[in-house]
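User: Here's a chain of 316 residues. Predict its fold as tokens.
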Amino acid sequence: MLNFLYCLDENYNKQCLNSIYSILNYSDIECSFYIIHKEPKSLEPINKKILNHNNLKNFVVKEFNDSVLDFVNLEKVHVTEPSYYRLFMSNYVPKNIEKIIYIDPDVVCLKNFNDEILKKLKIMEEQNLNLAAVTEDPHEVDKDNAARLNLKSKKYFNAGVLIINLSNWRELNIVKEFENLLKINSNRLELHDQDILNIFYDGNYLELDKGMNFTVPGGGEKYLKKIKEYKFENIKFIHYSGNKKPWQIKGILHEAGEHYREAYESLYQKKYHLSDSSKKKSFKLFTKMIFDKRLKELKYPYYFIFYFFRYLLKIK
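Assistant: Prediction complete.
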């Protein structure tokens, strides 16, 4: 059995369930899911397709209740407070869980991953490492985050998919370590808890293949270049880490969005998921799509128009 962890608030409920369902569909062994949530009741009811899935072992939701005042630099960014919750996972995941895979809610599974994770867990044991992650490409993000944080290893990982030896985290009392780092580094955290994790590990982690956390850049040209250099069939987890999410109007035309849409339709029987935008901004972007004649780029343009106006009526 494999154990997975998500951290979120109500703004990512559907994305999280979509991610979980995609994992269940591509796993050939049982999976348990643990969710640390800001408002657990907002997640109810859970889609029956998930609860009745043959590969589901456990589905546990816990409310975050640690008294932390150091969640810094959250103004005017797409990162929210729950991003920091993973630093406190050892306080919420049952003590009998020794290994866990952390997944961001904006990650979708595209291929079976079991063998790869089990292989990496074995290597982690052999090399006495308690974390595995995908190292970030500075050219993709237009910034050398390792240099920004003065990391000796000159390596910086993306924390969207992490394999963690949680029993080691407990032995190290790692929550206290993270709390101290939050206080000491509050003035230089640009990428929030991801920076904290990188400062703590500074390269002392097992490298995962890029396909285990294939991050999607915001711009279309960057994505097309990246997908050209890396074989699509090797991607197991696709991570919509850029600023153009596939459920946003501004990201609906992104070349990688179709994978999210297909997963979403499989769970909800709806062609498009639209969320996270103001009415004025949404209509402006929709109008631009019409004038630029880009609607034809969508697989289901008429369905999109239908869902867009229904969504427009719901938002303020």
